[in-house]
Design brief:
Layout: H1 2-23, H2 31-53, H3 57-60, H4 63-87, H5 92-103, H6 107-119, H7 124-151, H8 156-168, H9 171-184, H10 191-202, H11 204-216, H12 225-249, H13 255-265, H14 272-280, H15 284-309
Length: about 300
Amino acid sequence: MEVFISNVIPVFALIACGFFAGKFKLFGKKSSEVLNQFVYYFSLPALLIHSISVAPISDILNENFILAYSLGMVIVWFVSSLISKFLYRDNLEITALQGVNATYGNTGYLGIPLGVSVFGSAALVPASITIAVNAFLIIPFAAILIEFSRNRSKDFNHVILGIFRALLINPLVLSVLIGLILCFNDVRFPNAVDNFLSILGAAAGPCALIAIGLFVSNIPIKGIFVRLGVTSILKLILFPFAVWVLVELFFPLSQMWVAMAIIMAGTPLGATAFVVAQKYNIGVSESSASIVVTTAISLITLSILVTLFSG
């Protein structure tokens, strides 16, 4: 519990830095957006390229782990889409973002330290796989749905062309593809480039969390409490439960890999969801508030998961 809290407190502290900076008007009105643009176009791509390119190929291709985690994600996304579409009558763009909110976990800045503290360095591999799955499945799929929604008034060829063009210039999608190409071809960066990517990538988490705090300082969240509750249940309870059922019934894994799959699925919403929401200017309030709320609730839910599955 002490190790977990020591990793959660810095997350809240960084959000608080942004929150108080916003409340005391220390930065300009566009500061959250500018900081977010830096993360989206520079820092997060560097993090993705670096982390994916150095992952061992044999571990990236752990089929049972990938299938259990990915199918659990698909199940939760489907449930989230049904709720968004039929309960809230959301359009396709908001439905796509709600899917991101229900599935994109903070597997990097919270999941990796937590996993390593419980299982040692062996946890780095499954944690890295979840980062790759998050980046390679969730972000591109959400981008496709959003671009389809924005282009579907045109003819089919224009829709497909619009989606393809949007994906080609999406820095997160490109970063994942570059990372995978480098990984499968066993390309290693020179030390100078490796250090550059490490330094630039390390800024992604802190900057995104501060940007969240800046944004939250200027929004009311009273009207979205119900949505926050639904997102929290989907992300922190349904997702790890779905993964547990899948590994127990269909995709057997060793104890450590089972625990890591479930714990990673139970991590709170990652800051990338806010980055995507602000980039496309949809559901920004819900995403930012969901990150804060799910992180707070995960103090309880993740503690339970670690206790149940780390033995």
